[in-house]
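Task 17 of the worksheet. Students: predict the tertiary structure of the chain below and write it out as structure tokens. Keep your answer in the requested format; marks are given for formatting as well as content.
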Amino acid sequence: MLKKIFVLVLIFSGICHWGGCNRNSLPDDLPKLVPTTINVTQEGKPLANALVSLSPIDMNTKWSAVGRTNIDGKAQMSTNGMYDGVTAGKYKVVILKEEAEKLPDPYEGAPDPKTDMDKYQEWYMKNEAQIASMQRRQAKVFTFVEGKYTFAETTPLEIEITDNVHKYNIDAGKIVKIELKDNKNR
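Model answer:
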């Protein structure tokens, strides 16, 4: 048993080493990375599960950074989503939080076809139109961040990363819940 575990560890280590799992193997042209945490709030309350993106203001810079906020609204930023930290420079801060509504299960309350196929078929025949209607319904998608913060071209939020550890507090405006319809409300 121990021999099998040892072999699996060796295989996994080899895959990670040659397959790119090693976060320490940085590109040669990647500048120094600065550990960066961004705390996102709306009206003083943490904004959980939001995507935070840092878009470089200098168009000659190819390194962007992303992070996702935790329940406390804090995002640990990673350059190109792969390397912990952010390169020095000025950035536009883009914040996105979108969620689809949970649709009801059209088969909720149905008898189990594995245990009683006759009851299931009877139930299905009675509910077929409702099931079809529920299956055609598309979930509504909502954004929880005002549109101006969701694009680098329109966000008023900017930060500057220098050579030290950085912690930023970002206010993402008022608390909203806006239904997205063909991206018109962004």
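Marker's comment: Residues 117-136 form the longest helix (20 residues). The first strand starts at residue 33 and ends at 34.
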